[in-house]
Amino acid sequence: MTSAHPGDGLTVPVLALGRTLLVTLQGELHDRTAERLRQDVSHRIARSGALGVIIDISGVDIVDSYLGRVLAEIAANARLLAAHTVVVGMRPAVAVTLAELGLTLPGLTTARDVEQGMEWLARRLPAADGRGRGM
Amino acid sequence: MTAAPGSAVATCLPVGSDTDLTWVRQQIRQVAAGLGFGLVQLTKLVTAASELARNTLVYGGGGHVEITPLERGTIRGVRLSFVDSGPGIHDVELAMTDGYTSGDGLGLGLSGARRLVHEFELDTAPGRGTTVTVVVWTADLPAARPGE
């Protein structure tokens, strides 16, 4: 499956790994790109029936309140579509800055890296039938 | 506080689109890295700049930012002035409150940015536009001593 807007330099690739979508953010993100990503991920979940979304931000230098809000919205949208989201790879300097900014993103699950994110999802996905209410 | 010799010329960049926001972040990062900012201070500076530049764009209807390298003793820093000629802020106290927003943001722009910088100054009045000036040093300083 290809991205909805190929070749314009403003898209973020969304990779499907089984029933998990892997989104890798890199460097400077235009506001427009972030907003488009929010819509793309929702559409991809709806179309593919993905149960998990991993957003890798290890390549992101800064997260400001705008990008933070977009990440939280992606997770909230995904939850409504029956998918869990985990944000992985936040740099320590970004975490320190977000905390001082006052943006602690309580609704967002985080993990150290993609592998830990996959493990978190794997533990969660069998519970998606409603028997295990972990949180 | 004086402008750093040899780099006293302030850089002025437009803030008129989200492409400008990206450019402003990149330029400030480059200037700060050149001044010897560490990773955490650099990240705080660029994040604060991103918040303030977005305010200039979204609430001020666009404007510009002036980037001035500074020197105080052996410590270096940078001053950023975000200037717009928009509607200004009617209730400064309210605008500085965590969680308050007149738009669709999280309301952390001004109050959050203030926590990320060493010096913060807000100059605004209804109908007269808004200028936010911040200073960030390469290291946390004890209280400022003028003339040092």
Average per-residue pLDDT of chain A, rounded, comes to 86
Order of helices and strands of chain B: EEHHEEHHEE
CATH topology type of chain A: Transcription Regulator spoIIAA
State the share of residues found in helices of chain B, binned by percent: 25-40%
- What's the shape of chain A? globular
Q: Uncertain spans of chain A, ≥5 residues at pLDDT below 50?
A: 1-9, 128-135
User: In CATH's first tier, which class of chain A applies?
Assistant: Alpha Beta
Radius of gyration of chain B equals: 15 Å
Oligomer: heterodimer
According to CATH, the homologous superfamily of chain B is Histidine kinase-like ATPase, C-terminal domain
Q: Name the chain pair with the biggest interface and residue counts per chain.
A: A-B, 22 and 27 residues
Whole-number count of domains of chain A: 1
Work out the count of structural domains of chain B: 1
Ends of chain A: how far apart? Answer: 33 Å
How would a crystallographer describe the biggest sheet of chain B? 6 strands, antiparallel
- Spans of chain B of at least 5 consecutive residues whose pLDDT stays below 50 are none
What is the structural class of chain A? Answer: alpha/beta
Relevant CATH superfamily of chain A: STAS domain
What's the SSE blueprint?
The complex is a heterodimer of chains A (135) and B (148).
Chain A: E1 14-17, E2 20-26, H1 31-48, E3 52-59, H2 65-80, E4 84-88, H3 92-101, E5 109-111, H4 114-124
Parallel strand pairs in A: 2-3, 3-4, 4-5
Antiparallel strand pairs in A: 1-2
Chain B: E1 2-3, E2 11-15, H1 18-34, H2 39-58, E3 63-72, E4 75-84, H3 92-95, H4 109-116, E5 119-124, E6 130-137
Antiparallel strand pairs in B: 1-3, 2-3, 3-4, 4-6, 5-6
Helix pairs in contact in B: 1-2, 2-4
How would you describe what is shown here?
With 135 residues, chain A is an alpha/beta fold. Chain A contains four helices and five strands. Chain A has a single domain (14-112), classed as STAS domain (Transcription Regulator spoIIAA), CATH 3.30.750.24. In chain A, 41% of the residues lie in helices and 20% in strands. The longest helix of chain A is centred in the first third of the chain and has 18 residues, at 31-48. Chain A is globular, with a radius of gyration of 14 Å. The relative contact order of chain A is 0.15. The model of chain A is unreliable at 1-9 and 128-135 (pLDDT under 50). Chain B has one domain (2-137): Histidine kinase-like ATPase, C-terminal domain (Heat Shock Protein 90, 2-Layer Sandwich), CATH 3.30.565.10. In chain B, 33% of the residues lie in helices and 28% in strands. Chain B is built from four helices and six strands. In chain B, β5 and β6 form a beta hairpin. In chain B, α2 packs antiparallel against α4 (109-116).
